[in-house]
Design goal:
InterPro entries: AAA+_ATPase, ABC_transporter-like_ATP-bd, ABC_transporter-like_CS, ABC_transpr_LolD-like, MacB-like_ATP-bd, P-loop_NTPase. It is built from eight helices and ten strands. By secondary structure, the protein is of the alpha/beta class.
């Protein structure tokens, strides 16, 4: 089943008197259970594409359906509800709340929901165990390593039980060993729980793990890259 269906997506921004065409007629389907990378050089439109998929922005023109529901006509509150219930986010800067401990950071996206705290706590504890954080639940972000912070970000993305997780450069601030561990974790979550992951990245390590690589250039979608070609492109862009 297609979770994401995008047809002829355009997005333009006005910068002073200049119109910037960030996306130019991009079409894309993402099926349940995919582990897919969107790649391209800076300015190619990949972050804009993820922002539209994540309901953080809206297309200027075109059709975007999430689980078969048209998104373009949704108002601010409806988009916020969709983000909270359908989409998980993993950011390269982690974006954890400094004054909250690990367990509280994981639970945070669900606090506005009308569900029992006991149910939320049980789910958060289960996810924390899945991502290897049970021993640091009372630690605050400044007491964690970079890899542990990213694990908290992954757990926080999963606690809402989303249909798709969007990961924007998830390995950018991690060393090589930690990056491989985080990718192992996300692959396992994808394989064991059919969590759908869509990455935006320049990192060849992420591209190597992907089962599909979607290539953007100057706001256009190019032919999907083979793994070998994607790695060559990534190397040349570094």
């Amino acid at each position: 089943m297609a979770i994401v269906e995008m047809r002829d997506i355009h997005k333009s921004y006005q910068l002073g008197k200049t119109t910037v065409e960030a996306l130019r007629g991009v079409s894309l389907d993402v099926e349940e259970g995919e582990f897919t990378v969107v790649m391209g050089p800076s300015g190619s439109g990949k972050t804009t594409l993820l922002n539209i998929i994540g309901c953080l922005d809206q297309a200027t023109h075109g059709s975007y359906k999430l689980e078969g529901r048209e998104i373009g006509d949704r108002d601010f509150n409806e988009l916020a509800e969709l983000r909270n219930r359908k989409i998980g986010f993993i950011f390269q800067a982690f974006n954890l709340i400094p004054v909250l401990n690990v367990l509280e950071n994981i639970e945070f996206p669900c606090l506005i929901r009308n569900e029992s705290r006991a149910s939320l706590r049980a789910r958060a504890l289960s996810i924390a165990k899945d991502v290897g954080l049970s021993h640091v639940l009372k630690h605050r972000p400044d007491e964690l390593s970079g890899g542990q912070r990213q694990r908290v970000a992954i757990a926080r993305a999963l606690v809402t039980q989303p249909q798709i997780v969007l990961a924007d450069e998830p390995t950018a601030n991690l060393d090589s060993v930690t990056s491989e561990q985080i990718l192992d974790l996300m692959e396992e979550l994808n394989r064991m729980h059919q969590v759908t992951f869509l990455f935006s990245t320049h990192d060849p390590r992420v591209m190597k793990r992907a089962r599909r690589v979607v290539q953007l250039a100057d706001g256009y979608r190019m032919d999907d890259a083979t793994h070998a070609h994607a790695l060559e492109l990534a190397a040349s862009a570094r």
